TrEMBL record:
This is YHS domain protein. Residues 1-24 form the signal peptide. InterPro entries: RNR-like (IPR012348). The keyword Signal applies. It comes from the Bacteria. GO terms for molecular function: oxidoreductase activity. PROSITE patterns: PROKAR_LIPOPROTEIN (PS51257). Gene3D superfamilies: Ribonucleotide Reductase, subunit A (1.10.620.20). Keywords: Signal. It comes from Pseudodesulfovibrio mercurii.
Amino acid sequence: MKRTTWTIVAFVLIACIASVMPWAAGRLHAEPGNQTSCPVMGFDINRDIFTDYKAKRIYFCCPSCPPEFRKKPDFYIAAMQAKGVLPEDAPVEAF
């Protein structure tokens, strides 16, 4: 009986680890600039529409999204990070 219980526990543990591994691997290998969807609307980004926030460039799908993003930027950044999105660095302006 004990052996069966430990076998089931081991199987459940392995299944849990295996289910998390693809997600964790994606986050470990994500590279800056992997943003493909708008953080506000979720549609494909237009690289001509963006805003720079905390030295990161955030892209949007349409002109109405940047003002919405600016209302609660940390909320949208946290949601992007939870999805494994790493915004690219904003260009540094030279004087």
